[in-house]
Design brief:
- Helix content is 55%, strand content 0%.
- By secondary structure, the protein is mainly α.
- Among the domains are: 32 residues; 92 residues, no CATH class.
- The longest helix has 35 residues.
- The protein is elongated.
- The relative contact order is 0.09.
Length: 198
Protein backbone atom coordinates (compact mmCIF):
# COMPACT_ATOMS: atom_id res chain seq x y z
CA UNK A 1 0.00 0.00 0.00
CA UNK A 2 1.45 3.37 -1.05
CA UNK A 3 1.59 6.36 1.26
CA UNK A 4 -0.03 9.62 0.24
CA UNK A 5 3.34 11.34 0.06
CA UNK A 6 4.71 8.66 -2.31
CA UNK A 7 1.56 8.92 -4.44
CA UNK A 8 1.95 12.73 -4.74
CA UNK A 9 5.66 12.33 -5.54
CA UNK A 10 4.87 9.85 -8.29
CA UNK A 11 2.09 12.09 -9.61
CA UNK A 12 4.43 15.11 -9.73
CA UNK A 13 7.19 12.98 -11.22
CA UNK A 14 4.83 11.65 -13.88
CA UNK A 15 3.62 15.14 -14.78
CA UNK A 16 7.22 16.32 -14.96
CA UNK A 17 8.12 13.43 -17.27
CA UNK A 18 5.21 14.26 -19.59
CA UNK A 19 6.27 17.92 -19.76
CA UNK A 20 9.91 16.98 -20.30
CA UNK A 21 9.09 14.54 -23.08
CA UNK A 22 6.81 17.06 -24.79
CA UNK A 23 9.67 19.55 -24.80
CA UNK A 24 12.01 16.96 -26.25
CA UNK A 25 14.09 16.72 -23.10
CA UNK A 26 15.51 13.51 -21.78
CA UNK A 27 13.36 11.99 -19.09
CA UNK A 28 14.81 12.23 -15.62
CA UNK A 29 13.86 10.16 -12.63
CA UNK A 30 10.97 11.61 -10.63
CA UNK A 31 11.97 13.94 -7.82
CA UNK A 32 11.88 12.39 -4.40
CA UNK A 33 12.49 13.63 -0.94
CA UNK A 34 14.43 11.20 1.16
CA UNK A 35 13.24 11.12 4.72
CA UNK A 36 16.01 11.63 7.18
CA UNK A 37 15.48 8.93 9.77
CA UNK A 38 18.09 10.44 12.08
CA UNK A 39 16.65 13.97 11.91
CA UNK A 40 14.66 13.67 15.12
CA UNK A 41 16.17 15.21 18.25
CA UNK A 42 14.16 15.05 21.48
CA UNK A 43 12.87 18.37 22.76
CA UNK A 44 13.03 17.70 26.47
CA UNK A 45 12.20 20.21 29.18
CA UNK A 46 11.37 19.43 32.81
CA UNK A 47 7.72 19.86 33.72
CA UNK A 48 6.92 23.04 35.60
CA UNK A 49 6.04 22.75 39.28
CA UNK A 50 2.30 22.10 39.64
CA UNK A 51 2.04 21.96 35.83
CA UNK A 52 -1.37 22.32 34.26
CA UNK A 53 -1.79 22.48 30.48
CA UNK A 54 -1.86 26.08 29.20
CA UNK A 55 -2.71 25.02 25.63
CA UNK A 56 -6.00 23.56 24.36
CA UNK A 57 -6.12 20.79 21.75
CA UNK A 58 -7.04 23.27 19.03
CA UNK A 59 -4.22 25.59 20.05
CA UNK A 60 -1.85 22.62 20.08
CA UNK A 61 -2.86 21.66 16.53
CA UNK A 62 -2.40 25.28 15.38
CA UNK A 63 0.99 25.29 17.10
CA UNK A 64 2.03 22.13 15.23
CA UNK A 65 1.21 23.93 11.97
CA UNK A 66 3.94 26.42 12.93
CA UNK A 67 6.59 23.72 13.55
CA UNK A 68 8.27 22.20 10.50
CA UNK A 69 8.74 18.44 10.39
CA UNK A 70 12.45 17.65 10.24
CA UNK A 71 12.18 14.45 8.18
CA UNK A 72 13.17 16.26 4.99
CA UNK A 73 9.68 17.02 3.73
CA UNK A 74 8.23 20.51 3.41
CA UNK A 75 5.27 19.89 5.70
CA UNK A 76 4.51 21.06 9.20
CA UNK A 77 4.34 18.52 12.04
CA UNK A 78 0.53 18.37 12.11
CA UNK A 79 0.13 17.85 8.35
CA UNK A 80 2.99 15.37 8.11
CA UNK A 81 1.79 13.19 10.98
CA UNK A 82 -1.81 13.17 9.74
CA UNK A 83 -1.09 12.49 6.05
CA UNK A 84 2.14 10.48 5.84
CA UNK A 85 1.90 7.42 8.00
CA UNK A 86 5.40 6.25 7.05
CA UNK A 87 7.11 9.24 8.68
CA UNK A 88 8.53 8.46 12.10
CA UNK A 89 9.82 11.99 12.77
CA UNK A 90 6.52 13.91 12.94
CA UNK A 91 4.88 11.54 15.47
CA UNK A 92 7.98 11.83 17.68
CA UNK A 93 7.87 15.64 17.41
CA UNK A 94 4.14 15.48 18.21
CA UNK A 95 4.92 13.50 21.36
CA UNK A 96 7.40 16.22 22.36
CA UNK A 97 4.68 18.84 21.89
CA UNK A 98 2.27 16.77 24.00
CA UNK A 99 4.90 16.37 26.73
CA UNK A 100 5.61 20.12 26.78
CA UNK A 101 1.88 20.96 26.87
CA UNK A 102 1.40 18.54 29.78
CA UNK A 103 4.44 20.15 31.44
CA UNK A 104 2.61 23.49 31.62
CA UNK A 105 4.47 25.31 28.84
CA UNK A 106 2.82 28.05 26.76
CA UNK A 107 2.71 28.09 22.96
CA UNK A 108 5.61 30.54 22.74
CA UNK A 109 7.69 28.54 25.22
CA UNK A 110 7.11 25.39 23.17
CA UNK A 111 8.14 27.16 19.96
CA UNK A 112 11.24 28.49 21.73
CA UNK A 113 12.12 24.98 22.91
CA UNK A 114 11.97 23.64 19.35
CA UNK A 115 14.08 26.56 18.08
CA UNK A 116 16.65 25.88 20.82
CA UNK A 117 16.86 22.24 19.77
CA UNK A 118 16.70 22.49 15.95
CA UNK A 119 17.45 26.14 15.23
CA UNK A 120 15.17 28.48 13.35
CA UNK A 121 14.63 25.80 10.66
CA UNK A 122 12.14 24.29 13.11
CA UNK A 123 9.68 27.05 12.21
CA UNK A 124 7.51 27.02 9.10
CA UNK A 125 7.92 30.82 8.85
CA UNK A 126 10.85 32.87 10.11
CA UNK A 127 10.45 34.97 13.25
CA UNK A 128 9.29 38.52 12.60
CA UNK A 129 12.42 40.14 13.94
CA UNK A 130 15.71 41.55 12.70
CA UNK A 131 16.61 40.91 9.07
CA UNK A 132 13.70 38.46 8.71
CA UNK A 133 11.38 41.47 8.36
CA UNK A 134 12.79 41.91 4.87
CA UNK A 135 11.11 38.66 3.85
CA UNK A 136 7.76 39.96 5.05
CA UNK A 137 8.08 43.56 3.83
CA UNK A 138 10.14 43.31 0.61
CA UNK A 139 7.50 41.61 -1.60
CA UNK A 140 4.91 44.29 -0.79
CA UNK A 141 7.40 47.10 -1.36
CA UNK A 142 8.51 45.61 -4.68
CA UNK A 143 4.89 45.25 -5.83
CA UNK A 144 4.04 48.82 -4.78
CA UNK A 145 7.11 50.31 -6.48
CA UNK A 146 6.46 48.24 -9.62
CA UNK A 147 2.81 49.34 -9.69
CA UNK A 148 3.74 53.01 -9.30
CA UNK A 149 6.44 52.76 -11.99
CA UNK A 150 4.03 51.04 -14.39
CA UNK A 151 1.34 53.68 -13.76
CA UNK A 152 3.80 56.53 -14.38
CA UNK A 153 5.11 54.86 -17.54
CA UNK A 154 1.63 54.21 -18.95
CA UNK A 155 0.54 57.81 -18.27
CA UNK A 156 3.69 59.11 -19.96
CA UNK A 157 3.11 56.95 -23.03
CA UNK A 158 -0.53 58.05 -23.23
CA UNK A 159 0.41 61.74 -22.96
CA UNK A 160 3.04 61.34 -25.70
CA UNK A 161 0.53 59.59 -27.95
CA UNK A 162 -2.05 62.37 -27.41
CA UNK A 163 0.57 65.08 -28.12
CA UNK A 164 1.66 63.30 -31.29
CA UNK A 165 -1.94 62.97 -32.45
CA UNK A 166 -2.66 66.65 -31.77
CA UNK A 167 0.47 67.83 -33.59
CA UNK A 168 0.00 65.66 -36.65
CA UNK A 169 -1.97 67.53 -39.34
CA UNK A 170 -4.89 65.73 -40.87
CA UNK A 171 -3.78 64.39 -44.20
CA UNK A 172 -5.90 65.81 -46.99
CA UNK A 173 -7.49 63.34 -49.30
CA UNK A 174 -5.37 63.31 -52.43
CA UNK A 175 -7.12 63.77 -55.73
CA UNK A 176 -7.24 60.63 -57.71
CA UNK A 177 -6.30 58.47 -54.74
CA UNK A 178 -7.86 55.13 -55.24
CA UNK A 179 -9.70 53.68 -52.31
CA UNK A 180 -11.11 50.21 -52.70
CA UNK A 181 -14.85 50.29 -53.27
CA UNK A 182 -15.02 54.14 -53.50
CA UNK A 183 -15.66 55.84 -56.82
CA UNK A 184 -14.11 59.17 -57.92
CA UNK A 185 -17.58 60.77 -57.78
CA UNK A 186 -18.01 59.74 -54.12
CA UNK A 187 -14.56 61.13 -53.32
CA UNK A 188 -15.44 64.46 -54.92
CA UNK A 189 -18.68 64.72 -52.89
CA UNK A 190 -16.77 63.90 -49.68
CA UNK A 191 -14.15 66.53 -50.50
CA UNK A 192 -16.87 69.18 -51.10
CA UNK A 193 -18.62 68.29 -47.82
CA UNK A 194 -15.36 68.66 -45.88
CA UNK A 195 -14.64 72.06 -47.43
CA UNK A 196 -18.16 73.32 -46.70
CA UNK A 197 -17.88 72.37 -43.00
CA UNK A 198 -14.46 74.01 -42.67
Amino acid sequence: MRSRRRFVQQLVGGAGAVVASSLGAQSAPPPSTQMATDAYRPVLRPAKAGATPQVTDDQRDALEHRIKCQCGCILDVYTCRTTDFTCSTSPAMHRDVLRLVAGGYTEQEILDAFVETYGEVALTAPKKEGFNWAGYVAPGVVLAVGGIALTVLLRKWRAEAQRAAAQAPAAPLARGAALPGVSDDELARLDRAIREEG
